Each structure stands twice: as C-alpha cells, then as structure tokens.
Amino acid sequence: MRRDGKLSGVLHVLLHMAEVDGPVTSETLARMMQTNPVVIRRVMAGLKAAGTVRSDKGHGGGWTLARDLASLTLLDIYHGIGSPPLFAIGNRREAPECAVEQAVNEALDASLDEAEALLLASFGTVTLATLSQNFHRRLAERRAATSSGDRHDH
C-alpha cells in the first residue's frame, strides 16, 4: 500500500524554513525535497491561505513562516494542505442494498471515525516547536557521537 507522504514532506520543508534566516525560494525547497518547484508552490499556496506561511515576490523574495513554531500544530498543517484522507481503507460501496454490507459499513465507519478523531486530536497536541526541539536534540546527539568516534550510521 502506497502511503501519502504530503504531510510529512510539508513538515520537513517547514522545519528547514525555520532554520533559515530569511525567505526561501520554491526552487530551493524543491531541490531539498527532490520535487518540482510547481509542486512546492501548490502546497505552499494552501499553507499561505491558512496563514501558516507568507510569500514575497521579486529579488530576495520567497517563502517565510507567518507564525511562530510554538503556535503551529500538526493539525494546523494538516488542514493547510487540504485535510487529505487519513486512512486507505474504507467501504466497498457507500450505499449498499445488501444488509450484510450495511452491517460491515456501519462497523467500519464507526471504527474509522473514532480512529480519525483520536488521530486529529493527537495532531492538535504536537507543535512544530516540539518537532524542532526533537530535531536539534538528535543533531546534538549525532555531533557528540561523531566527535567521540562512536558512530552509529543508521
């Protein structure tokens, strides 16, 4: 099953942007994410509409964060990229006539709705500041391991 990596990729881009002092161009972000600048612009347009990022045109322009990392949650970003489906599973048919399939749909719908609510609530508790802190901790650990000669390249 192919997973949708859009949220993960956008979080990656936003954390890189937080490390840069000043605007970052779509071309730079595209190279970072190994994609086309048009893809970056489409995704960033949704985040701009949500108030997550802003853009400046012209020489020296590009994308910048519009909000502090501590005020941005995974839920904010998820909504900013259009709230894509969270699960790949679903009903075979939405309005079946078969009573067995109706029972199956009811059970799946209830479980999936509950799981989605839990996942979205969890997204609302994780900020980009938390992710940034995690990144910086990992970077410091990697540097310490490298300087002590204790390398673990996984």
From TrEMBL:
Gene3D superfamilies, per the entry: Winged helix-like DNA-binding domain superfamily/Winged helix DNA-binding domain
GO molecular function annotations of the record: DNA-binding transcription factor activity
Source organism, top-level taxon: Bacteria
GO annotations of cellular component type: cytosol
Pfam families with a match to the protein in the record: Rrf2
PANTHER family in the cross-refs: HTH-TYPE TRANSCRIPTIONAL REGULATOR YWGB-RELATED, WINGED HELIX-TURN-HELIX TRANSCRIPTIONAL REGULATOR, RRF2 FAMILY
Stated name of the protein: Rrf2 family transcriptional regulator
